[in-house]
Amino acid sequence: MLLLKDRYRAINFLGAGGMGRNFLAVDEDTPLKKPCVIKQFCPAPEIQNNRAAFQKAIELFNREAAQLDRLGDESPQIPRLLAHIEQDKRLYFVQEFIDGQNLLQELEQGETYSGVQIRQLLADLLPVLKFIHQQGVVHRDIKPDNIMRRHRNNQLVLIDFGISKELSGTVMRMGTTVGTLGYAPPEQMTYGVAYPASDLYALGATCIHLLTDVFPNEFFNPQEKRWLWQDVLSSRGTAVNEQLGQILDKMLKVDVGERYQSVDEVLEVLKLEVGTNNQTNLNPSIIGTWHGKFSNKPASLIVTRRSNNVFHGTLSVNEWISKNKIDVEVYFNPLTNKIIIREIRIIPGSIGGWKLVENNEGILSLDGKQMIGKGKSYGSYSWSFSKSDHK
Question: Residue ranges of the Protein kinase domain (predicted)?
Fold first, then answer.
């Protein structure tokens, strides 16, 4: 199996695209053999047989490595570059492994998004989009496939910078068009130019796909020059907030000059819509006291505070002659109602020989009053809690 620099060892083939192959790998130099991803430059035969296309492919491959090197260390929502390697006359780069799934996979496994979930998505993604634009970079390929959600903390990560481009002044020019049909705006697909507003268009297209489970290119009516996604929602007996609909429609304007020109403009409108509500107000509150059973033993879960997407608290499990108290972090995915209770440390003074099992996965009820799940790391025990102080 592939081994780079006697350090990065491929252990599983992940898939291939037009420009290369991806492998799940481990870093042999780390004590825990941390997972990573190897990207091997290996373009399709039709690209290799076209000199101009081959040179462009090399440029795009090296550019992705350079962008990750420049951006990944500054934002947890962009994968970090670990190495850029030429070995045996082949090009590779190694990047951080994102343990999670992309939003298209989420959509295929669950239901379409609600308006509240789309507002949360925008609140999570717009800041990282603002960051890359401030660095003079346009992503150019935003779509559900290129947005991943970490299993560990539900954080969204923007991936695949393979066709990203640095801005020259306010406009970026290319000899070829790039992007994904249905998500990339007309100026990018037709003329090969892209602006920050082009990324906002693609993000808007991503949102209407998640709202409807229909690919965006099926929504535009060229005769009326308008998007029909709200008509589709109406035919299903659903709708989004009027102002959110206006925001998405403006992000999707065909004329680039009629769109929001910056992330800040979108954030400002969202702030006016949401008012003083913060993220906690958009989701069921987990903070409070929960009582139930853990591995068939009486238990309580006290969640005291929140920082970003992580709740913090204490899990207490009562056994016959002992009581164990454990510091925990609770991760909640508002899109799937999935709960992860991660055990951090046993609190000094606990009585009993409790062993940390680390992860306990479950589901929060729709009314936010119950959670139920099973242990993941060891055994097949179950747990359940009911909120005793819901308001």
Answer: 8-270
Pairing of strands 193-194, 288-294: unpaired
Share of the chain above pLDDT 90, in %: 43
Helices marked H in the chain — which ranges? 45-48, 51-71, 103-109, 115-134, 186-191, 196-212, 229-235, 242-251, 263-274, 279-282
Each residue's pLDDT tens digit, 316-361: 988 766 678 888 888 877 656 778 888 888 887 655 555 555 678 8
* pLDDT over threshold 60, residue 174: no
Query: Does residue 81 sit in the same domain as residue 128?
Result: no
CA dist 148 and 77 (Å) reads 9
Tokens, residue 225: 């020059």
Last residue of a domain, one of 248, 263, 278: 278
CATH code for the domain in which residue 325 is found: 2.40.128.20
Of 375, 378, 324, nearest in space to 353 by CA: 324
Contact 65, 37 (CB under 8 A): no
Query: Catalytic: 141?
Result: yes
**190 and 249 fall within a common domain:** yes
User: Which residue from 133, 70, 166 is spatially nearest to 263, judged by alpha carbons?
Assistant: 133
The position carrying tokens 């308008």 is 226
Q: Which residues contact 252 (CB under 8 A, 6 or more apart)?
A: 201, 204, 205, 208, 227, 259
Q: How many domains does the chain have?
A: 3
260 and 141 share one domain: yes
Q: Which of 27, 124, 141, 199 is catalytic?
A: 141
